[in-house]
Design a protein that fits this description.
Largest sheet: 7 strands, mixed
Shape: globular
CATH superfamily of the largest domain: Vaccinia Virus protein VP39
Strand order of the largest sheet: 10-9-8-11-14-16-15
Structural class: alpha/beta
Strand content: 25-35%
Number of domains: 2
CATH class of the largest domain: Alpha Beta
CATH topology of the largest domain: Rossmann fold
Order of helices and strands: EEEHEEEEHEHEHEHEEEHEHEE
Number of helices: 7
CATH architecture of the largest domain: 3-Layer(aba) Sandwich
Radius of gyration: 19 Å
């Protein structure tokens, strides 16, 4: 997954990953990287920032580092990044595979109508920006007001502040049930359910208990001739085959176009990092 951007995976190993986000190099945990690093330890030690969950240490910085955040370009999009208490910075590079697939799919159905797309568990808005740039109407939903505001700021960075995007802060299940009652329909859905989460009123979400209901509700809000559904997942055990089975059961009229592992690739000798699973559906293909 080579990307023409300011992001680069530099190395991985010993349960860590070394990444460049624009001008800054970050050293962060990566449970999948059980192999040995390829680069010398001295290069890891030179990172601008490192994060550890051991002993509640959090972030450690070397030299000047922007406490209020910085900008980074990735796959034709610009993001506002900042360090968080969870070790995240506001972007998951492995999701670029979804962005690129959706661009191709929308090009294939170009001209039939202006698509209306629902982005669930939308985080900082990477998929929302891709869809808006492609001319879609987008409903961007996340249970965190902070993340929706962050995504809105990313839209402004990409000159999409006036794009037809609905910014929704809500619990996914509650929102979908209301959309079903309203009779609102969407031509496509993206969803990246977490393993565990909380809704706007602290509603508990557990993927093992709630994903089946969400997929059923997604089926109910799809238009009669939808374009696609793209699902990603980082929960251990939810392999590409598991996602395929779930989608086939809930959307029997669709075709599973692709499934696989999301990966982050770097230049040799850097080893690629598996980073979750994906599966996508298409109709009228």
């Amino acid at each position: 997954m080579q990307m023409n951007m300011q992001y680069e995976l530099l190395d991985s190993g010993n349960g860590r990953k070394l990444e460049r986000f624009g001008p800054y190099v970050l050293d962060r945990p990566c449970a999948q990287a059980v192999w040995a690093p390829a680069l010398p330890e001295s290069l890891w030690q030179a990172a601008n920032a490192s994060f550890t969950r051991e002993n509640h240490q959090g972030w450690q910085f070397q030299g000047a580092f922007p406490s209020d955040g910085w900008k980074c370009t990735m796959d034709e999009l610009t993001f506002w990044l900042k360090t968080t208490d969870f070790g995240h910075v506001g972007i998951f590079p492995e999701h670029a595979i979804a962005w690129r697939w959706m661009r191709r799919r929308l090009e294939a159905v170009n001209g039939t109508r202006r698509p209306s797309i629902l982005n669930l568990f939308a985080y900082s808005g990477g998929a929302t920006l891709v869809l808006a740039k492609a001319g879609c109407e987008v409903c961007h939903l996340d249970a965190s007001r902070k993340m929706v505001d962050w995504a809105h700021a990313n839209a402004a960075l990409n000159h999409l502040e006036d794009a037809p995007i609905r910014w929704i802060v809500d619990d996914v299940t509650k929102f979908l049930k209301r959309e079903v009652r309203r009779g609102r329909k969407y031509d496509g859905i993206i969803l990246d359910p977490p393993s565990f989460g909380r809704g706007t009123n602290q509603e508990l979400f557990k993927i093992d208990y709630h994903l089946q209901e969400i997929l059923s509700l997604c089926r109910d809000v799809l238009s009669p001739a939808p374009f696609f559904l793209f699902m990603t997942c980082h929960t251990p055990g939810y392999t590409p085959i598991v996602l395929e089975h779930l989608l086939r059961q809930h959307f029997p009229s669709a075709t599973v176009k692709e499934k696989g592992e999301m990966v982050i690739e770097g230049k040799p000798p850097c080893l690629e990092i598996p980073s979750g699973s994906y599966a996508c559906l298409a109709w009228n293909s």
